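Attaching the record inline, Q. Sequence:
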Amino acid sequence: MSQTIDSATPSMPRKTSIGRTITLSTLLTALIAVVLLAFTWPALTAEPKGVTLALTGPESAVAAVEPLLEEQAGETFDITTVDDRGAAVDGIEQREYVGAIVLGDEPELLTASANGTVNQVITSLADPLQDALDAQAAAQVADVAAEQGMDASSLPVPEITLTVTDVVALSEDDPNGTLLTSAFFPILFGGMIGGIVISTAIVGALRRVIGVAVYSAVGGLVLTSILQGWIGAIQGDFLINWAAFTLAIGAIAAPIIGSVALLGRAGIAVGPVVMMLFANPISGAALPAQFLPGAWGAVGQWFPPGAAATLLRELSYFPSADMTFSWLVLAGWTLGGILLALVGHLREQRRAAAHRANADGDGASDAAIV
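Structure, as predicted:
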């Protein structure tokens, strides 16, 4: 009798030892360090390199300024000589160049505040260029005075004013670009939360795919309505922006449900680890790609956070830019996640079929024995 009672009584779970508790809790603090480094490392190593700059004007002026820029700026600028001011403007609007210097009778510095933080590198050229123009004018007066045997101080130095023109300016609703930058995080957070919740709350790979499709479309509509229709953080065509937000959310959520379909609960880590800790810091959303060390800026554009940030900025302010790569990256991650989910679905179906076959076989064997 006592044995029956004992066997029916559930055993108490064994408590974790104090030493293991303290050790595990201490080791978990390493996660804090990883998160901290992931978000501060780009800023600590930030140094602009390869900022594309167009240069145009008379050959003699270009020949004088180009080596001066290369000498003083080092690897900061990637300088390209273009035919005229129109070519420089077109290049800025297509995001081939971040800015441009126009030399000649009416010198001009072309900027694009819609580029965000990297535009500060271009605007910082204004004072050095003005000083160089003043020095050049004084040198020309000195040469003329020397040729004529006159005192250079007796001759007036012509005033040359450098004009700074913002070719692609931010909107009046977002003059500092802070609203546009803040629009990128809801995509990342929304995509992760959607993928995680759908993976845990919905059973069935096909239903999860449907869930991601509906969530991405509705979420994209909500974000576009708020950020464009209400706040004014983004510009451009509403429907195209809606498509971009939808695809961006799907590109983050779909790989999560795909990973869960293949790996089980462990696949949920794709969101926090891949998207948040790895892809987000090198996305160029908070810190321009030109500020990231090595090739990390380019690598970041192959992941949804980077592609989404670039696409939304270009849709808002640089409609002439080639956005094919960003669309393809987002589409690739979305379709890839859906494909993984379907593969996981087929694998589960095969396992279920094999299990039923084994169960039927065992039933037939038992019947034969009876």
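Residues 324-369 form the longest helix (46 residues). The two ends are 33 Å apart (CA to CA).

More tomorrow.
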